[in-house]
């Protein structure tokens, strides 16, 4: 039995930080603290990607979720006031208990699904926990480039168009607001 | 006993799947119980991140030659960013008329 202690410790450390700060983000009183906790979650998720050998995805995750998206959120938070935080703290209506129940049932259902559907093929190597991840870095960039520019070339172009549509759409929304203000 | 120690300390696909599952459910729970629109959006981002972990974990363990999961994950990150941009633009428009971030104030579509 070979156990990579360092990798295990790093995984459990990252996982603990992710779960703790995700919960803190949900239950934080002030929305700005909630956002900061979410940034920590996204940053350590990039660490999980790194553990899985996806360095490129980790860098993109940090660039978009740790830098770009929080800036948008901070701009939105600046519209709101401290008084809003008090009014909009968690609700204790019946939907709270319903959501707790629904999340619990979903948790059990997904555990059942993971434990049964994936273990049908008992010859899969990772079931014995012996699988180690080895991804050659040059091969990773090769595969990503090949994916973007040959296998998923049309999807890549479609996403560029989608981003363009979003920019035009947001400008149109602002235009509609300006006209309605007039 | 050795099997249990092996299962706990030898990190495999299951560990990543369970981490993603817990993060997804925290996001799901937060999206329902939060009254602040911005917190609901943050919770939805948690759910997107959990799905991304699954994409990358499956690609690493099953497809470490072609790595399609990595490419899909990048598309998915783009979709997440687009979703946030549109959601915040709509939030800005709605906030202009109601001056509130409370989801319960926006009940015109109840019928």
Write up what this structure looks like.
The complex is a heterodimer of chains A (182) and B (111). Chain A is mainly alpha-helical and 182 residues long. Chain A has a domain at 1-90. Helix content of chain A is 77%, strand content 0%. Chain A has 7 helices and no strands. Chain A has helices at 5-27, 31-51, 55-77, 82-87, 94-117, 137-151, 153-181. The longest helix of chain A is centred in the last third of the chain and has 29 residues, at 153-181. Chain A is extended and about 65 Å long. Chain B has 4 helices and no strands. The N and C termini of chain B lie far apart (59 Å). The longest helix of chain B has 31 residues, at 68-98. Chain B has one domain: Helix Hairpins. Chain B is mostly helical. Chain B has helices spanning 2-9, 13-33, 37-62, 68-98. The interface between A and B is large, with 91 and 75 residues.
List keywords for this structure.
heterodimer; A: 182 residues; mainly alpha; 0% strand; B: 111 residues; Helix Hairpins; 4 helices; elongated
Task: Break the fold down into its secondary structure elements and pairings.
The complex is a heterodimer of chains A (182) and B (111).
Chain A (H helix, E strand, L loop, with lengths): L4 H23 L3 H21 L3 H23 L4 H6 L6 H24 L19 H15 L1 H29 L1
Chain B lengths: L1 H8 L3 H21 L3 H26 L5 H31 L13
Helix pairs in contact in B: 2-3, 3-4
Short account of what is shown:
The complex is a heterodimer of chains A (182) and B (111). Chain A has 182 residues and is mainly α. Helix content of chain A is 77%, strand content 0%.
Q: For the residues shown, what is the average pLDDT of chain B?
A: 84
Our estimate of the beta-strand percent of chain B is under 5%
Beta strands of chain B, count: 0
Q: What's the helical proportion of residues of chain A?
A: over 70%
Largest sheet of chain B: none
Largest interface, C-beta closer than 8 angstroms, per-chain residues:
A-B, 91 and 75 residues
Q: Radius of gyration of chain B, Cα only, in angstroms?
A: 19 Å
């Amino acid at each position: 039995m070979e156990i990579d202690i360092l990798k295990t410790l790093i995984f459990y450390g990252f996982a603990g930080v992710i779960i703790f700060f995700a919960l803190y983000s949900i239950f934080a009183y002030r929305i700005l603290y909630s956002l900061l906790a979410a940034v920590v979650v996204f940053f350590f998720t990039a660490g999980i990607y790194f553990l899985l050998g996806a360095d490129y995805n980790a860098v993109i995750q940090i660039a978009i979720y740790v830098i770009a998206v929080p800036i948008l959120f901070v701009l939105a938070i600046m519209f709101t006031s401290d008084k809003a935080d008090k009014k909009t703290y968690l609700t204790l209506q019946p939907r709270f208990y319903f959501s707790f129940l629904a999340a619990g049932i979903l948790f059990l259902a997904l555990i059942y699904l993971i434990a049964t559907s994936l273990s049908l093929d008992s010859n899969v190597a990772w079931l014995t926990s012996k699988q180690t991840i080895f991804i050659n870095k040059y091969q990773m960039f090769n595969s990503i480039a090949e994916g973007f520019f040959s296998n998923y070339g049309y999807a890549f172009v479609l996403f560029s168009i989608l981003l363009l549509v979003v920019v035009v759409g947001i400008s149109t929304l602002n235009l509609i607001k300006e006209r309605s203000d007039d | 006993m050795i099997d249990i120690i092996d299962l706990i300390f030898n990190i495999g696909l299951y560990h990543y799947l369970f981490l993603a599952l817990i993060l997804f459910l925290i996001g799901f729970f937060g999206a329902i119980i939060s009254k602040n629109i911005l917190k609901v959006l943050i919770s939805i981002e948690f759910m997107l991140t959990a799905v991304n972990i699954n994409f990358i974990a499956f690609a690493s363990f099953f497809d470490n030659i072609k790595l399609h999961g990595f490419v899909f994950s990048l598309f998915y990150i783009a979709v997440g960013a687009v979703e946030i941009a549109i959601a915040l633009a709509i939030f800005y428009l709605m906030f202009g008329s109601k001056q509130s971030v409370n989801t319960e104030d926006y009940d015109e579509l109840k019928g």
